[in-house]
Amino acid sequence: MSTSNTRIAPSLLSADFARLGEEVRNVIDAGADWIHFDVMDNHYVPNLTIGPMVCEAIRPHTKAPIDVHLMVEPVDDIIPQFAKAGADVITFHPEASRHPDRTLSLIRDHGCKAGLVFNPATPLQWMDYVMDKLDIVLLMSVNPGFGGQSFIPNTLTKLKQAREKIDAWQSNGGQAILLEVDGGVKVNNIAEIRAAGADTFVAGSAIFGQPDYRQVIENMRREIARGEQQAS
């Protein structure tokens, strides 16, 4: 395990929406790797956020990958819109698709990396039938819908289980699959989240809620490295 193979993805849900382009530039300049883009429809989850037009508006502000998390139902119609708007990664909840396998194919057909998102109560078995189409698996460590929630400790066990599935798949010749975690990720718990097997970390208020983005991201990297030492 090495920190060079990890990604910090600040969630725009916690950014200042009046200065979104500037926030994107600032957080990437501060050392972030990806931009995490939370899409909520007030249907699948009880909140309404941003859509493809906002994704298209921030795209010119960074070359960093835009990681679009679709908390919408149905999902298929909106996927081409986000691909066109500049998304690099698109993830969705299997419960929100009639055919997760087909939805993953749709994302990849539009040139994006594809992934499934697991709510705290969603079993990981969904992965087993679509491993060949997964580029990323995202575990929610809060119940989706709102930013600023506390990390659910049970997620650590689930992360270890997902890590085992991914490692087994890759050791048998399967493609690389990233393991992302989203919800309540902070400087004081990111080490144990890394030790449990996550390699991609979504953080919202832990970064955007602080005066110095660079300092928070550097602190997170230091803790990620500590988590790797714990795991080795």
How would you describe the overall organization of this protein?
The structure is a single chain. With 232 residues, this protein is an alpha/beta fold. It has one domain: Aldolase class I (TIM Barrel, Alpha-Beta Barrel). The protein contains 8 helices and 8 strands, in the order E-H-E-H-E-H-E-H-E-E-H-E-H-E-H-H. Strand 7, helix 6 (190-195) and strand 8 form a beta-alpha-beta unit. Helix 2 packs parallel to helix 3. It is globular. It starts with 6 loop residues before the first strand and ends with a helix.
Short synopsis of the structure:
The chain is α/β, with parallel strands linked by helices.
Derived from helix and strand composition plus strand pairing, the structural class reads alpha/beta
Total of domains: 1
Quaternary organisation: single chain
Gyration radius, rounded? 16 Å
Summed up, the helix count is 8
In helices, the fraction of residues equals 25-40%
**Do you know the CATH topology?**
TIM Barrel
What is the CA–CA distance across the termini? 8 Å
**What is the succession of H and E elements?**
EHEHEHEHEEHEHEHH
The 3D shape can be described as: globular
CATH top level label: Alpha Beta
Low-pLDDT ranges: none
Major sheet attributes: 8 strands, parallel
